[in-house]
Amino acid sequence: MSYLNDLYQEVILDHNRKPRNFRELEDANRKADGYNPLCGDKVTVYIRLEDDVVKDVSFKGSGCAISTASASLMTETLKGKTRSEIAALFKAFRSLVTGKSDATVKQAELGKLAVFHGVSEFPVRVKCATLAWHTLQAALENQQETVSTE
Ligand code: ZN
User: Fold this and answer.
1) Which 8-state DSSP code applies to residue 118?
2) Domain coordinates of the chain in residue numbers?
């Protein structure tokens, strides 16, 4: 199984080096800021939401490889999804990174996001992996205050 872990690590490193959708979204109608004081990760998530569907999503910020890659893969995954589909994905993702789920089932549901399964072995990294998702949720709920993982 270790070659699989290496493969997953490659995906994370690639998204950290070349984050996808890393820009301000000019026609965004939702936006939120998130901060993980434990690691110093900062992220701003921009969404264009139309009729309960995420038409476009992007992010900006600075942080560790896990937080950047997680935000990058999240934005790639969410385009065209409804709020309820996103809520279900977030739930599955959180179970995956906290090691509270049947990994095989969740990996099938999560697709590419399953690369973060290794995070469950490093509890201190869980907040890095979920920061973008918490921030996304705040943006969808139109929350104005900065989301903190603490
Ligand atoms: Zn971090």
Assistant:
1) G
2) 2-148
